[in-house]
Write a structure and sequence with these properties.
By secondary structure, this protein is of the alpha/beta class. The chain folds into 2 domains: 265 residues, Aldehyde Dehydrogenase, Chain A, domain 1; 192 residues, 3-Layer(aba) Sandwich (Aldehyde Dehydrogenase, Chain A, domain 2). The chain is 38% helix and 21% strand. It is built from 16 helices and 24 strands. The strands form 7 sheets. Strands 14-15-16-13-12-18-19 form a 7-stranded mixed β-sheet, with helices on both faces. A 6-stranded mixed β-sheet has the order 9-8-7-10-11-22, with helices on both faces. The structure holds nicotinamide-adenine-dinucleotide.
Length: 520
């Protein structure tokens, strides 16, 4: 790997976005932490360096967030006023879609098609959140006495947002928009492998008029900066997306403070083909579900269950279609499978495939780095299908987070449900069938936060997203996603004419005649 900073090429000039600055308490400054090197996954070249944030920055950012929420009036603002700022942030993201997309492709290797879609979806998240915020209502609850009871919500204070590297702008927006909407400040800790898009989002938010100090962005190592942020006594909520072991550890740290936590974690999602499925749609959907983003997606459909009667036929079609996928750099508009995030991650994926093969799995297609010399310096791995193992094999239990899936036969619905649900995870699943009764039976029987029927990997900000088992805790998106950044408060307002009866006699005795103050 070269240690020179590579000159930027391509349609967008991004140098102005790659300044060696972190964003603490409304101030852009050179970080005092270790240097983070950013490497272009497509060619292994270092394209930028940034000094990370430190634990001291955490203290400053949290204190500034708390102060800014009060002094700027953000916390007290009427929802429609906060919504106006969120809408402006959405518009600014949309205007700068090309820039966001080019930066994210440079930092993560993803295709431009995908990063453009993610940027547009992030803008949509801010629009949706603004609109939903304007319609969130306090509740007058049913009368149980001579008083009015109002259930209301208030901000939790400062929110810690910790995110992974696979879809920065979308995962940032999914957390930052509702957290701000709820009247909080946010301290974001982006991943070391891809910090730039979160920093760009902060610049966009600042330009759109978000009050200074409400959002800080602290790139840096999880085990120091991230952990200090979660443990900080004045942080009122953690929203985390990342690996299950990290999430479980942070849940313990949060539990010590009795702090509410939302965790979006890993998955090993089944995608299921019944013999009555439309095969063209199923093959297209299965390939998209596992190989887009090079499989670096929490909901990647990495266990492909195929009914035994069509197993050989569908496997042959999947293998041939996979062979035809175009592998290349994310900047090439024809590319479907771009490089992985780093060559070390690619090597881990390759090692998991090799271990599966040593355990008896057969490589049906892929299973190696591409031979094309033009791709030799990038973090590429060919889209891979494995067979010859059953659902108990480690490759069917552990998340690969790369372009690797296993094909598995099933006999009937009962057999399918037993196998599909036999997993520590429960994030997503896909079902391909034309039987509408079966759709309802299977969708309810699958243990998963999301079930896709005759489609896969679609995202709607207005639809709740959650994982069960080791895939997560709590819900993001939708109206409840905003509520999750609030705490409830109940207000009782008396309407009665009389004092409360228990001490009414004494109160009348002392309040309806002059008080003898000399005895007090
Ligand atoms: P990771 O858990 O290693 O890191 C995620 C974030 O946590 C990073 O910012 C990291 O710096 C930080 N972190 C690490 N250790 C920490 C600590 N001790 N204290 C505080 N912060 C810490 O995960 P990753 O490799 O970046 O991302 C891949 C994982 O994310 C996969 O398991 C994937 O399934 C999951 N993911 C889940 C979803 C979802 O919505 N369920 C979405 C995307 C990714």
């Amino acid at each position: 790997m070269s240690t020179e900073i590579a000159p930027l090429t391509g349609e967008a000039t991004l140098a102005h976005l790659l300044r060696d600055e972190v964003f603490v308490a409304g101030d852009w400054r050179t970080g005092a932490g270790d240097v983070i090197e950013s490497v272009d996954p497509a060619n292994g070249r270092v394209f930028a360096r940034i000094h990370g944030a430190t634990v001291d920055d955490v203290d400053e950012a949290v204190a500034a967030g708390e102060r800014a929420a009060v002094e700027s009036g953000w916390r007290a603002m009427a929802p429609h006023e906060r919504a106006a700022v969120l809408r402006r942030i959405g518009e600014a993201i949309e205007r700068r879609t090309d820039e966001v997309s080019a930066l994210q492709t440079l930092d993560t290797g993803k295709t431009r098609g995908e990063t453009s879609a993610l940027a547009r979806s992030a803008a949509g998240t801010f629009y949706y959140t603004a609109s939903a915020l304007e319609t969130l209502e306090d509740q007058v609850t049913p009368r149980r006495g001579p008083y009015v009871t109002v259930a209301t919500w208030e901000p939790v204070g400062v929110v810690a947002s910790i995110t992974p590297w696979n879809s920065p702008i979308a995962s940032d927006a999914q957390k930052i928009a509702p957290a701000l909407a709820a009247g909080n400040a946010v301290v974001a800790k982006p991943p070391v492998w891809a910090p730039w898009v979160t920093l760009l989002l902060a610049r966009i938010a600042e330009e759109a008029g978000l009050p200074a100090g409400l959002l800080s962005v602290l790139p840096g190592p999880g085990r120091t900066v991230g952990e200090a942020l979660v443990a900080h006594p004045d942080v009122g909520k953690l929203t985390f997306t990342g690996g299950t072991s990290t999430g479980r550890h942070l849940a313990h740290v949060a539990a010590d403070k009795l702090m509410p936590t939302t965790l979006e974690l890993g998955g090993k999602s089944p995608t299921i083909v019944f013999e009555d499925a439309d095969l063209t749609r199923a093959v297209a959907g299965i390939l998209f579900g596992i190989f887009s983003s090079s499989g670096q997606s929490c909901i990647a459909g990495s266990r492909i269950f195929i009914q035994r009667s069509i197993f050989e036929d569908v496997v042959a079609r999947l293998v041939e279609a996979t062979r035809r996928l175009r592998v290349g750099p994310g900047t090439d508009p024809r590319t479907q499978v771009a490089p992985l995030i780093t060559s070390s991650h690619r090597d881990q994926v390759a090692a998991m495939v090799d271990a599966a093969v040593a355990d008896g799995a057969r490589v049906l297609v892929g299973g190696e780095v591409p031979q094309d010399p033009a791709l030799a310096d990038g973090a590429y791995y060919l889209p891979t299908l494995l067979g010859g193992v059953d659902n108990s094999a480690p490759i069917c239990r552990e998340e690969v987070f790369g372009p690797v899936a296993v094909v598995l036969p099933f006999t009937d619905e009962e057999d399918l449900i037993a196998q599909a649900n036999d997993s520590e995870y429960g994030l997503a699943s896909g079902v391909w069938t034309s039987d509408y009764r079966r759709i309802h039976r299977i969708a309810r029987a699958l243990v998963a936060g999301t079930v896709y029927v005759n489609t896969y990997k679609q995202f709607s900000i207005s639809t709740p997203f959650a994982g069960v088992r080791d895939s997560g805790l709590g819900v993001e998106k939708g109206r409840e996603g905003i509520r999750s950044y609030m705490r409830q408060k109940s207000i009782y307002v008396d309407l009665g004419e009389e004092p409360l009866p228990w001490a009414a006699e004494q109160a009348r005795a002392v309040c309806q005649q002059p008080v003898n103050t000399t005895q007090a």
